[in-house]
Amino acid sequence: MFPAKQDAKAISQAEGNETVSEDVPAIAGKRGAKPSGKPTLKTIAQMTGLAVTTISRALNNAPELAQDTRERVQKIAAEIGYLPDRAALRLKTGRTNVISLVLEPDEQIYGFGTSIVSGLTEAMRDTAFHLVITPLFRNVSPMEPIRHIVRNRMADGVIFSKAESFDERIRFLLDNDFPFVSHGQSRWPEAHPFVDFDNEAYAYGAVQRLVQKGCKKVSIVLPESALTYTDHLKNGIARAANEAGIAHEFASDVTLQSPSDAIRNYVMKRSKRPDGPDGWVCASEVSALAVIGGLNEVGKTVGVLSHVISKQSSPMFAQFQTGAETVREDFVMAGQQLGAQLLARIGGADPAGLQFISAPQFSWEGSAT
């Protein structure tokens, strides 16, 4: 990606180039010759005979320039390995043209990170911004990478997931007026940008489906209690179960962050009891596989003696032929929304207008209704 239009003059000056009128071609150097040393805007100007400001606008896809001019300049820039001087841009404008995505290792392993990145890069296509992945290592406070990014101005905006009800990352970013979008909501009174899936509607619809299947008691393995969407899931489960007049429970001793074996063993233990649930709502594919494994191990064949509804974010889950029914959560689309919201926020948009909640679509993939 190349620098934004509003930064073109700043970059040319920061690189040590004089601002040249776009109507006057650059004279120094031999036109068409590939220079030695680090290529700059002036380098491309010398090779093309165009003005430095015209080069900057061409690299930024300025629509007022002819398409063939833009393509010629961009082709030469790619051939000689031109890269904008980010340090100079930051010193001159205070901008980095970088968006940082904070990811935990587990999020990448489970495919969440790959899908989010795919959507983000699509949203950033044809912009001046680059995406940088900032890892959140195990046993490190989620605040550490956020503080590092903000205090060192490592990016113009940041995206992170697993929003908590009173998330200190959100509080810190709000207090510092630093652009961000969270994947998930919070309960802070100030409006802030977020992208979320309607987990309460998902849980409510999943329980309704289990009731249709004849289930008399439903259960769910919840995320950690601090996460906002935990309450959303609990509200949906309880409301649908109460309306249908069936029993419900929330799994104890395990959460979505527990090892799969721990979830599997818990399900086996509960299923052996006479008051065990016969319907399960799963908030992730990984937990669903553990639940299904536990049910099948004790003879509660899924789709026959027990029923499972799970979120599905990748086609891989269907390959296991689990007998579960699924509701899609589209993380690629979430990534696109996260990118669009953050770009708008960096551009000065009102946070209250940058909130998106995706509604579940109950098509019941995986088996007939």
Principal-axis shape? elongated
Question: Got a strand count?
Answer: 11
Question: Would you list the SSEs in sequence order as H and E?
Answer: HHHHHEHHEHEHEEHEHEHEHEEHE
In CATH, what is the homologous superfamily of the largest domain?
Answer: Response regulator
Q: Distance between termini?
A: 47 Å
- Helical proportion, percent range: 40-55%
- On the 0-100 scale, what is the average pLDDT? 86
- Uncertain spans: 1-35
Number of domains: 3
Tell me about the largest β-sheet. Answer: 6 strands, parallel
Description:
There is one protein chain. The chain contains 14 helices and eleven strands. The protein has helices at residues 8-14, 41-48, 52-59, 67-80, 86-93, 105-109, 112-124, 143-151, 168-175, 199-212, 228-244, 260-272, 285-297, 331-346, and strands spanning 98-103, 130-135, 157-161, 180-183, 194-197, 217-220, 247-250, 279-282, 307-312, 325-328, 355-358. Helix 7 crosses helix 14 and helix 10 packs parallel to helix 11. The longest helix has 17 residues, at 228-244. It is elongated, with a radius of gyration of 26 Å. The two termini are 47 Å apart.
